[in-house]
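Hey, can you fold this one?
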Amino acid sequence: MHSHVCVFAAGTSGAEPAGQLPANPKNRPELLERVVVVGASASAGFSDMKSQPHPLCNYVERMIEGPHSPVGGSADAMFFMSPEETGKREVDFALTKNPTLVVATDFLFWYGYGDVASEDERLAGLEKGSPRWTASPAP
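Sure. Predicted structure:
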């Protein structure tokens, strides 16, 4: 069974899957058997520090209707402090779960955010985060 990585990047017109996702996941229930959420503060359930965070993995868990393993989550609100180390740790965690789907909504954000000398430099930063998934069997 293959795993899929679903990355939604800010500033794009929509989802940009790393693999071919089915048009209707209900036709492929095995896609939702082992879901893992990785990413930064939005995925970690960004909060104002006065209230409890609400991690994305909790919402994804509630959306899956059929039988499945508990949705795993390794999103880290402090991702921005060390994107390369944190990204590696999150990918390593996800791969230990043998995921059928990885939701990486804001995973690449800190690889491309900020003042850079050129757009080429920004794209190079995004490329640093993208190869993290080459260890995944995702198509």
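The radius of gyration is 15 Å. Let me know if you want another pass with a different chain boundary.
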